[in-house]
Amino acid sequence: MSQLNWGILATGSIAKKFALGVTTSNTGSLAAVGSRSIENAEAFAKEHGIGTAHGSYDDLLANPDVEAVYIATPHPSHEKWTVKAAEAGKHILCEKPIGMNYRQAKVMSDAAKANNITLMEAFMYRCHPQTAKAVEIVKSGAIGEINIIQASFGFRVPFDPQKRHYNNALGGGGILDVGCYPASFARLMAGAALGQPFAHPLELTSHGHLSPETGVDLYTIANLKFENDILAQLATSVSVPQQSYARVYGTEGYIEISNPWIISPEGGDWEFHIKRPGKKEDEVVRGNDPRRLYGIEADHFCAVVNGEELQAPGMSTEDTFSNMKTLDLWRETICLRYDYE
Ligand SMILES: NC(=O)c1ccc[n+]([C@@H]2O[C@H](COP(=O)([O-])OP(=O)(O)OC[C@H]3O[C@@H](n4cnc5c(N)ncnc54)[C@H](OP(=O)(O)O)[C@@H]3O)[C@@H](O)[C@H]2O)c1
């Protein structure tokens, strides 16, 4: 199996988790880290056993040992650093949401194509075998004809207008931060039901509550309609301690995933349940993967870089475009516009 030398761009909370993940992957090694501050880069490099620390993102991109860059800055700067990384000839795994909107996603994809590199949006749960298994079950017809999908991802972060979750200039709010997960799940499962890698909603309606202080979305619920009258109900927030769940309801039963997003973060066992009308006992679908969640993602990305055909639930460019268009619409229906827009 081919190997990939990673450069980590930014040293925040998810960058740390990704670096830990790479150490459990089969294909990745940590070549370098870049930060806006050399002190942060050096501290991060020491913590994760990385040989080279750069005091700027540009220096990281100029490092010839770096084959792939993991972009872990707040969402508004994903576009800028993806375009620069593509121009530097690096493969790019860019954190979700890939950009602030579809328009930025398109610019990023064009830059990737022009420079002949692989660009993928980092939806780690899409790379995990648990998600692939759920897709397989839906496709097989084992729970009948799919009618309803429900998915939720939200949490409560103490209000701080400077923090990225609430900060307008940093793309705060639930939809972009975590609403992107339920949206991507519903599109994936509707697609599986329709025999496609993903589906795009025909209609979307929603309600939401915006922060009076910073204008970002604090909590919001959306209803989506897909082809064949497949309906989805999505919820997200940054101010409400919501339960994470994902359910796919068919005419013969439903899949209940109680841990759909941050699946076995440290590696190990995973499971979800199938519930059937009239049956007391759930069917339990189980698996095990020793790699950390983000290590699985790093291996998945390496396989794509090495020419393995990308299959759903892996995140293709068209899938990313559909997700960003869905998020654009969700934001539009609750009148959420960022100050820069
Ligand atoms: N896939 C997942 O599970 C997951 C989980 C959490 C977040 N994310 C995504 O990852 C991205 C980063 O989230 P995070 O939670 O890691 O954020 P974070 O803890 O705030 O870290 C962001 C990092 O970006 C860099 N940065 C560059 N410009 C910045 C600016 N203007 N303000 C603040 N930081 C800036 C900083 O690194 P330096 O100081 O080193 O330059 C900072 O440490 C977001 O797009 C988010 O959606 C994904």
Give a concise summary.
The protein is 33% helix and 26% strand. With 341 residues, the chain is of the alpha/beta class. The protein is globular, with a radius of gyration of 20 Å.
Descriptive keywords:
341 residues; Rossmann fold; Dihydrodipicolinate Reductase, domain 2; 8-stranded mixed sheet; 6-stranded parallel sheet; 14 strands; globular
Instruction: Give the averaged pLDDT, no decimals.
Output: 97
Instruction: Using the coordinates shown, work out and report the CATH topology of the largest domain.
Output: Dihydrodipicolinate Reductase, domain 2
Bound molecules: NADP nicotinamide-adenine-dinucleotide phosphate
Helix and strand run? EHEHEHEHEHEHEHEEEEEEEHH
* Number of β-strand runs: 14
Instruction: Report strand order across the widest sheet.
Output: 8-9-10-7-11-12-13-14
Tell me about the largest β-sheet.
8 strands, mixed
Radius of gyration: 20 Å
Structure notes:
With 341 residues, this protein is an alpha/beta fold. It folds into two domains: 4-122, 3-Layer(aba) Sandwich (Rossmann fold), CATH 3.40.50; 125-333, 2-Layer Sandwich (Dihydrodipicolinate Reductase, domain 2). The protein has helices at 13-24, 38-48, 57-61, 78-87, 102-114, 129-140, 174-194, 293-305, 317-333, and strands at residues 4-9, 28-34, 52-54, 68-71, 91-95, 119-122, 146-154, 203-210, 217-226, 230-237, 245-250, 253-257, 268-275, 283-289. Strands 8-9-10-7-11-12-13-14 form an eight-stranded mixed beta sheet. Strands 3-2-1-4-5-6 form a six-stranded parallel beta sheet, sandwiched between helices. Strand 13 (268-275) and strand 14 (283-289) form a beta hairpin. Helix 4 runs parallel beside helix 5 (102-114). It is globular, with a radius of gyration of 20 Å. The termini are far apart. The relative contact order is 0.17. The model has no long low-confidence stretch (mean pLDDT 97).
